[in-house]
Description:
The structure is a homotrimer. Chain A is mainly α.
Amino acid sequence: MTTQSIPVLWKNNTDKHYICKIIDISLRGCAQVMFQNNPITGLLFFIAIFISAYSNNNPLAAWGCVVGTVLASITGAITHDIKGWRDGLYSYNGCLVGIAIPVFITATPIMWLCLVVGSVVSVIATVCIADILKTWKVAALTAPFVLTTWVILLASYAFHNIYGSGLPSPDLPQHYIPSTQSSYSLSFFINSTLHGISQVFLFPGILASLFFIAGLAAESVVCACYAIVGSFIATLLACYLGANPHDIAAGLYAFSAVLTSVALGTVFNHPGWRVFIYTISGIIFTVFIQAAMNVLLMPLGIPTLTMPFVISSWLFLVPNKEFMPEHRH
Amino acid sequence: MTTQSIPVLWKNNTDKHYICKIIDISLRGCAQVMFQNNPITGLLFFIAIFISAYSNNNPLAAWGCVVGTVLASITGAITHDIKGWRDGLYSYNGCLVGIAIPVFITATPIMWLCLVVGSVVSVIATVCIADILKTWKVAALTAPFVLTTWVILLASYAFHNIYGSGLPSPDLPQHYIPSTQSSYSLSFFINSTLHGISQVFLFPGILASLFFIAGLAAESVVCACYAIVGSFIATLLACYLGANPHDIAAGLYAFSAVLTSVALGTVFNHPGWRVFIYTISGIIFTVFIQAAMNVLLMPLGIPTLTMPFVISSWLFLVPNKEFMPEHRH
Amino acid sequence: MTTQSIPVLWKNNTDKHYICKIIDISLRGCAQVMFQNNPITGLLFFIAIFISAYSNNNPLAAWGCVVGTVLASITGAITHDIKGWRDGLYSYNGCLVGIAIPVFITATPIMWLCLVVGSVVSVIATVCIADILKTWKVAALTAPFVLTTWVILLASYAFHNIYGSGLPSPDLPQHYIPSTQSSYSLSFFINSTLHGISQVFLFPGILASLFFIAGLAAESVVCACYAIVGSFIATLLACYLGANPHDIAAGLYAFSAVLTSVALGTVFNHPGWRVFIYTISGIIFTVFIQAAMNVLLMPLGIPTLTMPFVISSWLFLVPNKEFMPEHRH
C-alpha cells in the first residue's frame, strides 16, 4: 500500500459508510472556518482547538466543538446542495457555535441544550443567509454562527437557568484611557500576532496558533502567509491607534483581520498586486469595525465574535465584481 | 332567503357600495393578523379585541384598532395590487398600529395624530417591505407594524407632547434572578397558553382568547390547533429555561410563537410530519429570539412587539423553498 | 469670448487635464450632496461650507471637506461606472466624511488618518451599497457617508489616540421635559428653517444657508423651494410635538427633512400634486424618524447624521414604482 492510496482509500470509505462520510464532512467543516476544503487541515485545526481549550482550562469547548460540528454535518443533509454539504459548507458555523457556547455559558445540562439548538439552527441560518446573499454573489461567511450565538447569549440574560459566565458586563461606552504607559516590544508584536490567529477559534494560544498555520499551509502556503500578515498589520494598527494593550495581546483586534485577509487576499480573488493593496485596505478597515462593534455591543454585554470580519468582507466583496478582474467563486 | 345567500348578498354589496367594500376589507384585514382571509374571522377577532381592551381598562385601544384598520384599508387603495388590497393584506398592519399606539402612548389629541400617521405609513411600509422581500419569495408579515410603531414609540422619548405611559423604563440588561421560588400548576400552563394567544393583539385575556380561537377555527381548525400548540410549547420552554413567571403568565413568551406556529405549520406549508417537526423547531427558536430581543431593546425602553415572530419566520421560511416539497404562496 | 464659451472652455479642459477633471468631479460631488450635477452649484456650496466652518470656529472642517471630496473623486476612478464618476456620484459621500470627521474628532494627525481612511472607504461603500440597492432600483443616497463615519466615531471610544471631542455623552434615553416655557416667534421659525438647510452640511448658519439656496436655485428653482418647504414644515412639526427648542433652533430636526423633500419632490419624481402630497407625508415621517434615531443612538453617543433622511427616502422611494406614474432615475 503506497502513501498515495490513503486518500483514495479514505474517499472510498466516505462514499460507502455514513459514519466515515460524516467524519469527512466534519473535518472539512472545521477547515472551512478558514475557507479550506481539506480534511487534513480540519484534523490539524481540531488538534489546535483541543490544545487551546485544554490550556485555557475549558476542555468542554473542545468537546462542544466536536458535537457542534458533527450535529451541523448531520443536519446539513436537509439541503439540496449536496456538493456544498460534502465540502463542509454547512458545518463550519456549527463548529464555531460549539466552541462559543461553552466559552460564554456556564456548564449545565441546559448549556448543552443551547449548544444543540444553536448548531442545528446555524444550518438553517446558513441556508437562509446564503439564499439571501446569492442575489449579490457573496458568501454567508460566519454570519450564521454570529447571529445564532448572539441570540442565545442575549437570551441568557432573560433566562435564570442559562448563566452567561464569560460575558462582559453591560455598560455605557466610555472613551478608553490607559491606566499605565505601555511600551511595545518585538516579542509583544509576535505573540499578539500569533494569539490573533488562534483567537479566530475563540482562544489565545501560541502552540495552537502554530497548528492553525500548519493546517492552512497544508492546503495553501499563500493562505498561511496572508493569515500572518493580516494579524500582524491589525496588531500594529491597533497599537498605533491606542487600543487596550490587554485586548491587543489576547489577539482581540487581530482575529477578524486574519479572516478578512485570507478571504480578500486568496479565497475570493486571485492573488496579485492590485488584490494585495485592496486586501490591506480591508485589513485596516476591519480594525476600525472591530473597535466600533466593541463599543456598539457594550450596552448589551455580548462579544462581537467574528462579525467585524463578516461586515468588512461583505463591504469589500460586493463591489469586487467591479474592481477585480477575476473571481473565484 | 336561505343561509347560503347571505355571503352572496354581502359579496354583491361589497362590489357595489364603497362603504361595504371598506368594511369587508377591514374585517379581512383584522383576520389577516393571523393570516386568515375571512370576514367572519375578522368579526370574531374584533369582538375579542373589544372584550380584551375593555376588560384591561383601555377601551381606546379597541376604537383605535377600528380607526387604524379602516384608515389602512382606505390608504391601501393606492397600491396596484387590487387582489391583495381586497384580501386585507394592506390593512392588518394598520390594525395592530391602531391597538399599539393607545396601549403605549397616553391618550391626548397628539396620540390620535400618531395613530393616523402610523396607520397610513404602515401601508407604505407594507408596500416597501413586500417589494424588498419578494426577491426571496417571503411575505412582509407584521414587520411594517413593528417598524412603524417602534419609530413612534422611540420618538415619544424626544417629544414632550407625546408621553409613552405604557413603555418599560430604559435600563442596562442584567441577568434575571427570580425573587421567589415559583411553582407551576396545570392551571398556570392553561391560562398562560390562552393569554399567549390573545397577547398577539397586545392584551392578555381568557375570554378574548377563546374568541380568537373560534375565529381561527371558523376558517381552519388545523390553524386553531397550531396556535394552541405553539402557545403551549413556548410557555413550557420558557418555564424550563427560567424566564420571569409574570411575563410567562401574561403570555409574553408565547404570542410570537403562536404566529410562528400558524405561519410555518399551516399558512406557508402544507401540513405534514416534516412540516410539523420544522414548525416545532421554529417555535423553540422563537422563544430564544423573544428573550434575546427583550434584552436587546432594554436600553431603549421599547417592547419587541411581534418582531421575534417576524425574524424567526423569515429565518425558517427563506430556506423553505429548499427544505419543503411544496409551497402555498 | 462670449459668456457662453466659458462652460465650453471648461469642458475642453476637464477632458484634457487630469487636475481639471478632478476639480470638476469634486465640484459636482459637493453639489451631489443635494442631488445637483452642476459645478457652479458645487462652487457655491463650497463657499457656503467655508463660511459656516469659519463662522463656527472650525476651519479644519472646510479644509477636511476639500480633502475628502478630492480624495473620493480620485478613488472613484476604480469603478467602471465612468459616467457616474464624472457626475460626482462617488464623491459626495467623501465630501460629507471630510466635514464630519473634523467636527466630531479632535484635530490630531490621527484625525487626518481617519479622514483619509473614511473618504477612501466611503467610495467602496458607495459601490457596495449601490450594487445592493439596484435590486430595488433605489439610490445609495448618503448611507455610505453615515455608515463609514459611524464606524470611525464609534471606534473613537475604543482608541485612546482618537478623541471624539464633539460627540454627545452616551446615556440611557429619558422622556424629554422642557426646563422653561418656550414661546416661538416668527423670526424663530425663519431662522430655524435656514439653519436646517445649512445643517445638511453639519453647521448652522444663516449666510451659509443663503448660499446653499442660491446653489440649488442655480440648477433648479423648484428644488430650492422644496428645500425651504421641507425645512419649514419639519421645524413647525417639531415645535408642535414638543421637541427640544435648542435642537429645533439649530436646525437639527429639519436637515434630514430638507433632503427628503428635495429627493421625493423633485429628484426621483416629476413634480405634481400627487407627488407633492406624497412628499409632505415623507417630510412628516422624517421628523418622527429623526426623533426616533436621536433616542436610538443615545446609549452609543453618536449623532444620527443624515440617516433619518436615508431611511425615510428608501421607505418612500421603494414603493414609488407602484405609486407614482413616472420615474426619473
